[in-house]
Amino acid sequence: MGGKVLGVLGGMGPAATLAFLERLQALTPAATDQDHIHVIADINAKIPNRHEQPEAAGRTLGEMAARLRQAGAQVLAMPCNTAHAHAGAVRAAGLPFIDMPVETARAATATGARRIGVLATPGGEALYVQALAAEGAEAVRLSEADRARFMAVVFGVKGGDTGPEQKAAMRDLAAALVAAGAEGVIAGCTEVPLLLTAEAVAVPLTDSTEVLARACVAACA
Asked: What is residue 52's predicted lDDT score, i.e. its pLDDT?
């Protein structure tokens, strides 16, 4: 297989990046080692906090994208939804960039759903509101109390807790969106699939990590 070299801006968080790379490998139609995608991954857990230091985070992501291009990357992907607020800094490297929220919104609306619940950080949620509107769909959002609970669960995952209580909390949050009228749910934060499976949700669940991995295979394999 020839294909293109994929550059991955990772580390947000490390476990989510590794889960993305595992999904990328599993989805690639390969019979030999040589059939797999050539990946250059910068798993940089030192990126400034996207919520508290957005300008510094954007600068760092732009620098990472430029280094990936210098290292030979031909296509860029970033398995962190929130960080797509800095997509412009990544695109400044001059390479094709696969937009995770845009691809995921497209996949979610392809199920036929038009009111779609979003499990995401506040920054990621804002991106999905726009991406779903562009697809003619409406985002169903968590209440303020549930959003705070969601963030606590996400930071728990970042701290290494993926236990039963965390999984139950994420199931409850997805159920709250369904109860609010969601016809589908987007796992719009890369920590969500580490806790939530499609079987645990009463409506179609669109996993942004899987959507991004599939898009990378299509672009690079």
From this structure: 86
